[in-house]
Design brief:
Elements: H1 19-27, E1 32-42, E2 48-56, E3 59-63, E4 71-74, E5 79-86, E6 89-96, E7 105-113, H2 117-133, E8 146-147, E9 154-155, H3 182-185, H4 189-206, H5 208-225, H6 232-281, H7 284-288, H8 292-334, H9 336-342, H10 346-381, H11 385-390, H12 394-447, H13 452-493, E10 515-524, E11 527-537, E12 542-546, H14 553-560, E13 568-573, E14 576-577, H15 583-587, E15 590-593, E16 602-603, H16 604-608, H17 617-626, H18 630-634, E17 643-644, H19 653-666, E18 671-675, H20 683-697, E19 701-705, E20 717-722, E21 725-730, H21 732-738, H22 741-761
Parallel strand pairs: 12-19, 12-20, 15-18, 18-19
Antiparallel strand pairs: 1-2, 2-3, 3-4, 5-6, 6-7, 8-9, 10-11, 10-13, 13-14, 16-17, 20-21
Helix pairs in contact: 4-6, 4-8, 5-6, 5-13, 6-8, 6-13, 8-9, 8-10, 8-13, 10-12, 10-13, 12-13, 17-19, 19-20, 21-22
GO molecular function, one term: ATP binding
Subcellular location: Cell membrane
InterPro entries: AAA+_ATPase, ABC1_TM_dom, ABC1_TM_sf, ABC_transporter-like_ATP-bd, ABC_transporter-like_CS, P-loop_NTPase, Type_1_exporter
Length: 762
């Protein structure tokens, strides 16, 4: 058995600094088994430090530094690799499994961030394959350690699923995925039928001219060389037939191209619209695991690729199939013997197409994913250009883009090497087939089996036959590109929202604003965020949520807004479980003011009226006045018609916040959510925003999260959260008197404020 060395493609991604460590094991006679390795990026104390873990000839090797002497363990029965992760930090543990009454023994542990999970999983699979080949005995698991039954990774009792098994797996696209586009083509089926019939007629018209060359050669030109006069009338009819066939083919070709182009554009538009609408209906959980650039590439470039395939290449493919079929029938009707000689290269060409198609379909999906990396760099950098410039990181971002572009180039180069060999090979085979027909045809003419006119027509047909065959082979490339794009589109359309609409929604005519949180538990993946929380908010009451970062405050707000659904328990509004309400109907009664207000590109008035596009100018101005935004809006060049840049560029943080408050006021919600609404502004601006908030919260059920505890003194009650649980509840004075968790938070903030004042004095 031969093994790749660090110079082989399997080790191409291994940094050069680490290759000597692997080469030293090879020098000792240990072959590098399959190039399976993991470059860890954390040490045992969770500091960023690289280390290399790899498999070599039946042993698991570890080097803490490139120049360190590696240590190793034999991969044998009784050893296991356990995989786990917690809060973004993953671990691989090498353990000797429990048996004969002894508990499991941990031999080593390696830690890394979740970005290294894919190579870690690959190394673990290789380890298990080698261990199983050595004969794995039946073991008795440690009762205290729960394991995934599939991959044996450690799990906590509260885990719903194994984090390792839940990783996304990229499956190669199938050409059959294109058949799913019929869902979008069905409304245009009659136009497609008309286009198909026109294609059939146009193809038939193009096959007429070669057939007319038979009488031109055998009945006109060859007899003329023998001394017979030319029949001018017959020549005129034959030439007229050639001209008529050409004009008919042109007209039919124009009509079918125009009709099918119109249909394909509408199919593409419907596909984009449906995908975008479905995307808007998905929960925040979906967007938390996706990059903006990738989603933009799917809806934009992928649908364009499918569009081009439907409007151009699918039409060409249909024409090629019809042309080849009709030509084959005509060839066999003219001379079955010559036709059989024509078809000799077909089996080899078909085999080549089959082999190349399988490689292309995986290659093009990889290209799509790599291109999404390029667009993701742009989607990250352009909106954050102020941060890039502020920290003088233009060179770093340019290098990120250059690296993504280099990766894209490398993937494309690998696929182009395959395609550059395939296409000329098909052309060579068709040329050889044409030579066979020439040689065999001359031999038949010499024997008198066929006439020169028949051979001439046959060669004209065979030229078209091989041209179309070569064209069909080239369509393999665009077909696989379209299949890869269709798969990425249907990956979105097949995703079901984790916040589903109820099957039988309960009507919600009016909302009083009572909120009941009963035994609510929620997890992000396998990480518990809220545990058994109970809370009762009366109509018109203002509740303040306080606690350290990560205590679950924002998660609770997200659950009340139903951006996520609870794992256990229920949330009720006016006695109705919010999962029984239509999502849009329920959210119309919620006003949301975030820490970082988001404004769209457009006018001030359009941004204020975002929740109520039909609002009058008087209503917009009234909301702006209540939000203390009217005065600064009038100072803008065009007032309420002034354009704000993307994400509110050109306005200060306080101005953006007051516009977002006006936006919430305009919809007149019964439930109001304030998530750190004043945490990112100065003291003077905070006073202005606080005046606006006083108008906003009046008469509404309000749940407020505030960084500064002093801003929550107006709250009717304060709820102190810690590690997803409610630990204290009461008014500011009551909680201060208890000297518990809230008192400690307040004292810590007071000391910090005092220290800041001392610094200002100095």
């Amino acid at each position: 058995m031969s093994y790749p060395t660090p110079s082989t493609p399997a080790w191409a991604g291994l940094p050069a600094a680490w290759r000597p460590a692997v080469e030293r094991t090879e020098a000792a006679g240990e072959g590098a088994a399959g190039g399976v390795w993991l470059l860890t990026d954390l040490d045992t104390e969770l500091r960023f430090r690289e280390g290399l873990l790899w498999i070599a000839a039946g042993r698991l090797w570890w080097a803490a530094e490139p120049q360190a002497t590696p240590v190793s363990w034999p991969i044998e029965a009784g050893l296991a690799l356990w995989m786990s992760d917690h809060n973004g930090v993953a671990a691989l543990e090498l353990v000797r499994e429990a048996r004969d009454g002894a508990s499991a023994e941990r031999l080593a542990v390696w830690r890394y961030t979740l970005g290294r999970q894919v190579p870690a999983r690959r190394l673990m699979e290789r380890f298990e394959a080698l261990r199983d080949a050595a004969g794995r005995p039946v073991t008795v698991p440690d009762a205290a350690a729960l394991q995934c039954p599939v991959c044996h990774a450690p799990m906590e009792p509260e885990d719903d699923e194994c984090a390792v098994c839940a990783q996304v797996v990229h499956t190669p696209p199938s050409t059959l995925t294109l058949l799913r586009l019929w869902r979008f083509a069905r409304p245009y089926r009659w136009q497609l039928l008309a286009g198909f019939l026109l294609t059939l007629a146009a193809t038939a018209a193009t096959l007429v001219p070669p057939y007319l060359t038979i009488p031109l050669m055998d009945d006109v030109l060859i007899p003329y060389q023998s001394g017979q006069p030319i029949d001018v009338a017959r020549v005129g009819w034959l030439l007229g037939g050639l001209l008529g066939a050409a004009l008919l083919a042109w007209g039919l070709g124009w009509a079918k191209t125009y009709i099918l182009a119109l249909v394909s554009e509408r199919i593409g538009a419907d596909l984009r619209t449906t995908t975008y609408e479905h995307l808007l209906g998905l929960s925040l959980e979906y967007f938390g695991n996706r990059r903006t650039g990738d989603l933009m590439a799917r809806i934009g470039s992928e649908t364009d690729r499918i569009n081009i395939f439907l409007s151009l290449h699918l039409l060409d493919f249909a024409t090629d199939v019809i042309m080849i079929g009709m030509t084959a029938v005509i060839l066999f009707s003219i001379s079955p013997t010559l036709a059989l000689a024509t078809l000799l290269p077909l089996p080899l060409i078909a085999w080549l197409i089959h082999v190349v198609r399988d490689r292309l379909r995986t290659g093009f999906e990889k290209i799509d994913r790599v291109w999404a990396e390029v667009t993701s760099v742009l989607a990250d950098t352009i909106p954050g250009i102020r941060v890039v410039k502020a920290f003088a990181q233009e060179g770093r971002e340019a290098e990120r883009f250059r690296e993504a572009n280099r990766h894209n180039l490398a993937v494309n180069d690998r696929l182009n090497r395959l395609w550059s060999l395939f296409s000329p090979t098909v052309s060579l085979l068709t040329e050889i087939g044409l030579l066979v027909v020439w040689g065999f045809g001359i031999w038949l003419v010499a024997r008198g089996s066929v006439t020169v006119g028949v051979l001439t027509a046959f060669l004209a047909y065979i030229g078209r036959f091989y041209t179309r065959l070569d064209s069909m082979s080239r369509i393999v490339s665009v077909t696989q590109k379209a299949a890869a794009g269709a798969k990425r589109i249907f990956d979105i359309l097949d995703h079901v929202s984790s916040v589903p609409e109820p099957a039988q929604p309960v009507p919600l005519p009016a909302v009083q604003g009572r909120i009941e949180v009963r035994g609510v538990t929620f997890r992000y993946g396998n990480r518990s965020v809220i545990q058994g929380l109970d809370l009762d908010v009366r109509p018109g009451e203002m509740i303040g949520l306080v606690g350290h970062s990560g205590s679950g405050k924002s998660t609770l707000v997200n659950l009340i807004c139903r951006f996520y659904d609870v794992a256990e328990g229920q949330i009720l509004v006016d006695g109705v479980d919010i999962r029984q309400l239509r999502v849009a109907d329920y959210r119309r009664h919620i006003g949301l003011v975030l820490q970082e207000p988001f404004l769209f590109f457009g006018t001030i008035a359009e941004n204020i009226a975002y929740g109520r596009p039909d609002a009058t100018r008087e209503e917009i101005i009234a909301a702006a006045r209540a939000a203390h935004a009217h005065d600064f809006i009038l100072r803008l060049p065009q007032g309420y018609d002034s354009l704000v840049g993307e994400r509110g560029q050109g306005l200060s943080g306080g101005e953006r916040q007051r516009i977002s408050i006006a936006r919430a006021l305009l919809i007149d919600p019964r439930i109001l959510i304030l998530d750190e609404a004043t945490s990112s502004v100065d003291t003077e601006t905070e006073k202005e925003i606080q005046k606006a908030l006083d108008n906003l919260v009046r008469g509404r059920t309000t749940i407020a999260i505030a960084h500064r505890l002093s801003t929550l003194r107006r709250a009717d009650r304060l709820v102190v959260m810690d590690k997803g649980r409610k630990v204290e509840e009461g008014s500011h004075d009551e909680l201060m008197a208890r000297q518990g968790a809230y008192w400690r938070l307040y004292q810590a903030q007071a000391r910090q404020a005092e220290a800041e004042r001392e610094l200002l004095k100095d």
